[in-house]
Design a protein that fits this description.
By secondary structure, the chain is of the alpha+beta class. It contains five helices and five strands.
Length: 224
């Protein structure tokens, strides 16, 4: 019964973590972190991402242009680039390690301790990837809210709003965290279910000495 629960928890954790990792990769690539609709020209919608800025026109044409320089980007976008790439790498590493540690994986079946450690390490990688995804997405969203409600900017100036990638990034971080937590719980359950190591047997002479009884020779001479 416990083994069936662990297998289901590991399968669910891997599915959630992989879904979160794929969503994090998509969030990193798509230029939909911010959107801007111009009131003077409603036929154009601008979108901004970590790597490029795009404009979509009413006739369906979409033009994208890469950011000119990494150093010219705002600090939140620069840090977001680094953290999102780190999150994608950690998610891939976590998937490889956790896959080997799954109970259904035939490798290292004769070494359950190693499989449990690999599963825990993969879960930790997924958890770190979740933080590396949620932090930049939330930072960009926070700065977007501050800029939107900035009273020093005239009302006539258009303002950036949340893009679809912001919500996708939040979901990706939540899936990565939930998947890593499930894998970690199943690994700890597997450790509790492992049988204890057998106690070492001592020779009878040593056991008697430990108990305070000293064996006497069968034909011992009495000393008067």
């Amino acid at each position: 019964m416990a083994g069936s629960w662990r297998a289901k928890a590991q399968a669910g954790g891997m599915l959630l973590a992989l879904l979160g990792w794929v969503s994090s990769c998509v969030t990193t690539i798509v230029p939909l972190w911010k959107s801007l609709g111009l009131e003077l020209n409603e036929l154009e919608v601008w979108t901004l991402g970590l790597w490029q800025v795009c404009v979509a026109r009413e006739e369906g044409a979409v033009e994208c242009r890469a950011h000119g320089s990494f150093l010219a980007l705002p600090p939140d976008l620069r840090v977001s680039r680094l953290l999102m790439c780190l999150s994608n790498g950690l998610g891939l590493l976590g998937a490889l390690l956790a896959a080997v540690g799954l109970e259904g994986w035939r490798s290292c079946q004769d070494r359950p301790g190693l499989k449990r450690r690999l599963l825990l390490t993969g879960a930790a990688a997924f958890g770190t990837a979740a933080v590396a995804t949620l932090a930049p997405v939330s930072w960009v969203a926070y700065n977007t809210v501050l800029d939107f409600w900035d009273d020093t900017v005239p009302d006539i100036v258009p303002r950036w709003e949340f893009g679809e990638a912001t919500f996708l990034g939040w979901f990706a971080g939540a899936f990565l965290a939930a998947g890593g937590l499930l894998l970690a719980c199943s690994a700890r359950s597997a450790r509790a279910a492992m049988p204890p190591a057998p106690a070492r047997c001592q020779p009878p002479a040593l056991q008697g000495a430990a108990g305070g009884h000293h064996p006497h020779p069968k034909n011992a001479d009495l000393v008067i």
